[in-house]
């Protein structure tokens, strides 16, 4: 429950030291598990019969966004790497809302896979109204000197190139009123030691979003983004050391790590007609962290 997400709870207990060697991380192995939904949150039909494609939708922020969409009546296509247990759990939760959900496993750094995903979604669901480019990969290094060419290419291929591939593939299917939402990060604005390549990709996503917003405005397609701060997701557990994870997010002005559910309403806003006069914009959900940087 949101009532439990308090400064006092995390100051008293924090997040226990933990790390996952497997990349991407698994939600089922996180302690405590991320909060991705609230039973008290009710939908109002803002996305009835829309079809949304969400990358990284098996867990974390993507999962929270997908469930938020489902509560508003949207059907979902969840794109993920190989976290099958997490994906099946998310599919079950989405279908409990009375909507359809398809799963699409593969590597979004592969252009051919991205085009295949869009083809499959059209075949299964008949249309696409919303694209959420959310999936990301990160590996911390103490110095830029430790970032190999291979790691640099993988980080950009997963975090940036995939957005080009999926956006190109989906454009012929979008209509006036369709929405593209890209997940950036506070790191694009404040920087982050130990994640130079990741931060650079998140900055590229901001520029990509603004450029695409201008390019697609004439077609009535809106392109916006969300820049999260310290959100408790599998990416954190798999890209930080045990010491870095311990106490994660407590230093923010609001005194706690963000939970995926903290972002769900913003994704719904940007996907729905409530944001009909917004494009090229970013919503900063970071517990006030950027205000104090």
From TrEMBL:
Superkingdom in the source lineage: Bacteria
Pfam families xref list: adh_short_C2 (PF13561)
Keyword check for Kinase: no
Keywords: Oxidoreductase
InterPro entries: NAD(P)-bd_dom_sf, Sc_DH/Rdtase_CS, SDR_fam
Region (Disordered): 1-41
Signal peptide positions (record): none
Composition-biased stretches (Basic and acidic residues): 1-11
Keyword Metal-binding: no
Family: Belongs to the short-chain dehydrogenases/reductases (SDR) family.
PANTHER family: NADPH-DEPENDENT ALDEHYDE REDUCTASE 1, CHLOROPLASTIC (PTHR48107:SF16), NADPH-DEPENDENT ALDEHYDE REDUCTASE-LIKE PROTEIN, CHLOROPLASTIC-RELATED (PTHR48107)
Name of protein: SDR family oxidoreductase
Top-level taxonomy: Bacteria, Bacillati, Bacillota, Bacilli, Bacillales
């Amino acid at each position: 429950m949101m009532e439990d997400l308090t400064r006092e709870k995390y100051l008293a207990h924090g997040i226990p030291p933990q790390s996952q060697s497997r990349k991407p991380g698994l939600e089922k192995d996180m302690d405590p598990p991320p909060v991705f939904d609230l039973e008290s949150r009710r939908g109002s039909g803002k996305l009835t019969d829309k079809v949304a494609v969400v990358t990284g939708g098996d867990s974390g922020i993507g999962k929270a966004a997908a469930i938020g969409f489902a509560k508003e009546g949207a059907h979902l296509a969840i794109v993920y790497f190989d976290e099958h247990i997490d994906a099946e759990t998310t599919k079950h939760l989405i279908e409990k809302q009375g909507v359809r959900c398809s799963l699409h496993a593969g590597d979004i750094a592969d252009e051919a896979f991205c085009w295949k995903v869009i083809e499959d979604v059209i075949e299964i669901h008949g249309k696409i109204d919303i694209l959420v480019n959310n999936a990301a990969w990160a590996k911390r290094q103490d110095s830029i000197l430790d970032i190999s060419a291979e790691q640099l290419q993988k980080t950009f291929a997963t975090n940036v190139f995939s957005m080009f591939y999926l956006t190109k593939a989906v454009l012929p299917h979008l209509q006036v009123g369709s929405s593209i939402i890209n997940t950036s990060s506070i790191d694009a604005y404040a920087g982050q030691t130990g994640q130079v390549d990741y931060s650079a990709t998140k900055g590229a996503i901001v520029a990509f979003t603004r450029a695409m917003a201008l390019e697609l405005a004439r077609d009535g397609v809106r392109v916006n983004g969300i820049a999260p701060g310290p959100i408790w997701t599998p990416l954190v557990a798999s890209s930080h050391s045990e010491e870095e994870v311990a106490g994660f997010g407590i230093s923010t002005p609001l005194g706690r790590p963000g939970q995926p559910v903290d972002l769900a309403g913003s994704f719904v806003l940007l996907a729905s007609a409530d944001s009909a006069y917004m494009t090229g914009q970013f919503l900063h959900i970071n517990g006030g962290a950027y205000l104090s940087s």
